[in-house]
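DM from R.C. (forwarded with permission)

"hey, sorry to bug you on a friday — could you get me a structure for this? deadline for the figure draft is monday and I only need the backbone to look sensible"
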Amino acid sequence: MGNFPAILSQTFGLILNGLLTLLVTFYLLMNKETITGYFHSVNPLGQTDTDRLVSRATEVMSATIRGNFIVLAVQAVLGGVGFAIFGLSSPVLLGALYGLASLIPVVGITLVWLPASAYLILFGDLASGIGIAAWCVVSNLLMDNVISPKIVAGETRLHPLFILFGVLGGVPMFGLFGIVLGPTIIALSFIAIDIYRQLLKGDA
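My reply, with the result:
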């Protein structure tokens, strides 16, 4: 209960970010030609470099989304197995909710395992309540810091460490969408550095 205001604030912020993103996307699509023409007029890069940036951004964003769907599925399986082991009813449904909750920054899976653990403890099954809490915390730490970066790295062709840094920096900055935008920005930064090197060689 002490953390309820923070959880409520994070949830409200997530919903607000989603609505704002949909609104911005709508207007971007409505004015696509005008916006594209403007950026082409002020873009200092050549067509080849611009195409490289756009192609890589599209590739990384698509790969990150695919990778996160794989992570969601793995999280759902891990959660479902844990709920089944410790005797909760409807482990498949709870596992699915667990997987979806894993996409929510900060609070994430706590929204699922904490009530489940409290339910078991309140009804007298202390060992199972502590067990499900330990299972979820340990498995989530393993997923967030080891497995998830490797899965997404394989899809995006970025080192897992850069994926981890991208997500850790992107989520506080962009919320839920930072999961995709963080690694994308890092990938584009490498291309920008490469373009800068080529410009320096041309000047030399």
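R.C.: lifesaver. The chain has eight helices and no strands.
me: no worries. The chain has two domains: 1-33, 49-203.
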